[in-house]
Amino acid sequence: MNKIKIFLLLFLVLSLSGCSIKRITINATGSFMEDVVTAFFEEEDIDFAKEAVPANLKLLDGLIKGSNYENDDLLLKGCKLYGMYAMGFLEDMDTDKKKEKENLKKASYFYKKAKDYGMKILTKNNDFKNVLDKDFSEFEKMMIAFNKKDVEALFWTAFAWGSFINLNKNSVEAVSDLPKVRTMMARVLELDNKYFYGLPHLFMIVYYSMPKMFGGDLEKAKQEYEKVKQISGGKFILADFFTAKFYTVQKQDKKLFDELLLNIEKTPDDIIPEKLFTKIAKKKAEILKIKLSDAF
């Protein structure tokens, strides 16, 4: 009888600890993923990075699901990597119109997935969750509830959400969310406008380069570009690409368009440790030059 009791007690302990062991394993693997993200950003071979990242994304999906969507670090990595995959390897990376259309459809899907992961983090803040479906004025006032520790989640969620909207401008439902995204990014700028070489300002370059009916203001777009240049010391040339693609075309400034693309071409690949951003900017600039040769 004593042996049976001991066996039952041991079985109970193992059963109860099963979830804890699983959680510990997931958390340990999740911390390792931080190095994976860093190595991904530092990769300079675009083709290699593009081929390598899907396996890591599926690993992240499994870890996130295994954590029951509770691990914020994993959710943030998923948000960041899916958003970067869509922007870096799918948008503006092909001159063939049929292939480009297919890529944009995929990019839209991955931006939404990135946004959904980010929202799982942000909606843990009940104040944010409660105003999502309320008047915009209440949503705007609520932003003060986020502080500096929320910058990464706010930025990458807004980045993915805004990028999704940009690819779905024919959807009234998608475009109606643009003021919310703009407000989230404004809060990021208030908290840390220098985040990742001034990356939040890059988002605003695109926003202010839109038609006036969507909130565009070309003078402000140019100012945002100058801010990125100042913060990064002119090293973050992805800003040059987005300024060329959106601002100069809207402004019809062919001279600046050519200057920006030339600057991208001349910039050393290793000007920042995160070489992938530089290499992506160079590849996109090459394609942009071909696609927009007749845009002016």
Unreliable segments of 5+ consecutive residues: 5-17
For the record, give the distance between the C-alpha atoms at the N and C termini, rounded to a whole number: 89 Å
**Strand content range:** under 5%
State mean pLDDT (0 to 100 scale).
89
Based on Cα principal axes, name the global outline: globular
Computed over alpha carbons, the radius of gyration is 22 Å
**Main sheet summary:** none
| Approximate helicity band | over 70%
Helix and strand succession? Answer: HHHHHHHHHHHHHH
Structural class: mainly alpha
Please characterize this protein's 3D structure.
The chain has 296 residues and is mainly α. The protein contains 14 helices and no strands. Helix 1 packs antiparallel against helix 2 and helix 3 packs antiparallel against helix 4. The N and C termini lie far apart (89 Å). The relative contact order is 0.08.
Brief rundown of the structure:
This protein has 296 residues and is mostly helical.
Strand and helix layout:
Blueprint (H helix, E strand, L loop, with lengths): L1 H41 L3 H21 L5 H19 L6 H26 L3 H6 L4 H7 L8 H16 L5 H4 L2 H15 L2 H14 L9 H15 L5 H14 L2 H13 L8 H17 L5
Helix pairs in contact: 1-2, 1-3, 2-3, 3-4, 3-7, 4-7, 7-9, 9-10, 10-11, 10-12, 11-12, 12-13, 12-14
List keywords for this structure.
mainly alpha; 296 residues; 77% helix
